[in-house]
Amino acid sequence: MPKPTEPEGRSESDKNLFKIRTFFLFWPQLINPIYRPTNVIVPMKRSFRPWLSILMLVALTATLGCRIAGDRRGVFTVSAPMESSRTLIQRPPIQIFNSTLLKFASVDLGEEKFKLETKQLLEKDFASLGQHRNFATSRRFGRPDVNSRNSKVSNGLSVMLRSPKFYRHWLDFRRILQLWARKKMFQPDIMMDLVRLVKVPMDIYHGLMSSDKKYKSCAVVGNSGILLKSDYGALIDSHEVVIRLNNAIIEKFEKNVGSKTSISFVNSNILHLCARKEGCFCHPYGGDVPMIMYICQQVHFMDYLVCNSSHKAPLLITDPRFDILCARIVKYYSAKRFVEVSGKALEQWGSTHDGSMFHYSSGMQAVMLALGICDEVSVFGFGKSTSAKHHYHTNQKSELRLHDYEAEYAFYHDLVKNPHAIPFISDKFRFPHVLIYR
């Protein structure tokens, strides 16, 4: 085989350059030490090592320089191909929260009442529970003795406790209540567990492969009367998942609110009313629509146990750690607004907002749920107008005092404009893109 010839009339330096180029041309073959073609001109190691050392030194210097510059300036650079310019991307600013407001919002004024009621339920002290001692599901287990009106403990409830079916529910009730009460604590990372706690069970029910991927798009549909002035129905139904609140009627309102329902989000008072119906019917959107519920009163766990057996679709209870997070966020915004608007002392907030009865709305927690399980969140029907009804499907005109809707509107505003201004949520959580339609 003829050997490669060097071009004539070249200087010694040109010959060395030719050898270097030949070396890099056959580099893949030189990797294998077993076979080396004899017709390859390989430069001496003495001339190659300086080149390799210089290249490695340049690369190391450039890497360390970029890291030092990034640490000092608080930015990192992204180089665009075929361009010499560089784009600077700022890190999110560190949000500084009011420590007094944080501490105030962290205190649950209803905690002592909650512990007392839980203890009474677990010890079966029904007489001390007043109007909450009679379960709405009593007709399923026994007929109360209406002649015993002077007894502190209902005879009807005694009949229920002697019923084997009710007694099995009662054992389950105590077990679930104990587990739920133990988990009632603050945990800022709970937002990152919502896919596992909520989406995965629903995927399994629908026969889908469970994964940690979020829904692509979600619409949270509120019940405000302002929806009657819109034609958002088709837009709402175009989302992968549609979340509706408290069994709001959609029949005859499809043009305004759409017709698709993927998740029914309710408070336990709704299920308590459903428990009075034959068959515990609570499916205005169809029996195959999953229901997610947050607990307003511990005694409603009995309604859950009874109705869950009649539900074909999943009936899920929100994690109490998620409830605590929502409560703290809303109280923070409410207290902040109270001080700024009224100019009164923070200690007077409780007398204005019913103290221990203060609670976030179903809509607020439904939005929080969507933040944890959706990549994009669209919010409809949140807001009010002097010319619109409180709810689009009822004649209710006034708001409940135990909610602070103005504070929740401030929370929604931050979701869109500056989500890092929202307190108590872990810095590890990545907020999705949020749009609010009015």
UniProtKB/TrEMBL annotation:
Membrane topology: Single-pass type II membrane protein
Keywords: Glycoprotein, Glycosyltransferase, Golgi apparatus, Membrane, Signal-anchor, Transferase, Transmembrane, Transmembrane helix
GO cellular component: Golgi membrane
UniProt cross-references to Pfam families, sorted A to Z: Glyco_transf_29
Subcellular location: Golgi apparatus membrane
Family affiliation: Belongs to the glycosyltransferase 29 family.
Record-given protein name: Poly polymerase
Highest classification ranks of the organism: Eukaryota, Viridiplantae, Streptophyta, Embryophyta, Tracheophyta
